[in-house]
Design a protein that fits this description.
It contains seven helices and 13 strands. Helix 1 packs across helix 5. Strand 3 and strand 4 form a beta hairpin. By secondary structure, it is an alpha+beta fold. The protein has a five-stranded antiparallel sheet. Strands 2-6-4-3 form a four-stranded antiparallel sheet. Helices cover 20% and strands 32% of the residues. The protein has two domains: 145 residues, no CATH class; 113 residues, no CATH class. The radius of gyration is 20 Å and the shape is elongated.
Length: 293
């Protein structure tokens, strides 16, 4: 079996549930002290769903991760990704699902295809966030600051709109769950790897150690392109390996590996059931391409 590179190695960047901030931000600064915006050209990492796991799986999420160094914030990415961060969509679903679920509606095509370099300086006394906090949507003051250059330089205007989208409920399967409880000495982490079998079939494997069901549900979201709601009733942390045929290539009559639905039942004693989930979409009323500072 030929093992391919791990696509998502750190749970720190994918945890969908962020802890609430304890401090009040009523009097906190809501704009950067200095911010520059520079167009740098089109996305070059390749588009389309599933094409760029590191950059957010395409469709506007492509681009580099931000850097947070003291009170300096910098990133080169699309306006699409900036909007998802600034308005808190990384808090629950992340940029990748905003794209899959059509939760960012409207706007000109360049917001998904053109990249911009953002260099910004946070005012003295601003909260010192880690990159982990920001990528999990646990940096409300910084989110507010990002909204300012989007309004001022991109002339962005948006409003929220509730919509019901297809989803899956994660439930115990026939015969009950087959999950292994994690041990205290286990090291916490979750990732995805792909390996080529001898018959040429590419199998996806989700590997988890000391993982709660809510985090596992989020990894299923990334592989089914629908929100997955944990209704297993299971508490605690678990270890697992789930191997299945890639979701996009799985079709009736496929002679390769099991579908994600079959693999869940056979390997983990779980199942996915079709349902609906009410989610807030962000509608772009206006956006203009900025020129360089």
């Amino acid at each position: 079996m030929k093992t391919l590179p791990i696509l998502c190695a750190s749970i720190a960047l994918i945890n969908p549930v962020a802890k609430a901030q304890q401090r009040s931000y009523v009097d906190a600064p809501e704009s950067f002290e200095v911010a520059s915006v520079k167009p740098v050209g089109p996305v070059t990492s390749g588009g389309g769903r599933g094409s760029d796991a590191a950059g957010g799986m395409g469709s506007g999420c492509d681009g580099g991760f931000p850097k947070l160094e003291g009170n300096r914030f910098s990133v080169t990415t699309t306006a699409y990704a900036l909007i998802t961060w600034a308005y808190g969509y990384n808090k629950v679903w992340g940029c990748s699902f905003v794209s899959f679920g059509d939760l960012l509606i409207g706007g000109p095509g360049w917001i998904r295809s053109e990249r911009f370099e953002i260099q910004a300086l946070m005012p003295e006394g601003s909260t010192a966030y880690t990159l982990d906090q920001f990528m999990k949507g646990d940096a409300p003051q910084l989110e507010k600051m990002l909204q300012a250059p989007l309004r001022d330089r991109f002339n962005l205007a948006v409003h929220r709109q509730s919509r019901e989208v297809p989803a899956y409920a994660l439930l115990p399967g026939k015969g009950g769950p087959k999950l292994k409880p994690a041990q205290s000495e286990d090291r916490r982490g979750m990732g995805v790897r792909r390996a080529a079998e001898t018959n040429g079939q590419i199998l996806t494997t989700i590997v988890g150690r000391k993982i709660e069901m809510r985090d596992f549900a989020f990894m299923l979201l990334l592989n089914t392109h629908r929100p997955v709601i944990d209704r297993t009733g299971l508490t605690g942390e678990f270890n697992f390996d789930l191997s299945f045929a890639p979701f996009d290539s799985d079709a009736p009559g496929d002679s390769g590996g099991p579908s994600i639905f079959t693999a869940l039942q056979e390997q983990l004693g779980l199942r996915l059931e079709n349902t609906k989930a009410p989610l807030d979409a962000l509608v772009i009323d206006r956006a203009e391409k900025p020129s360089a500072n």
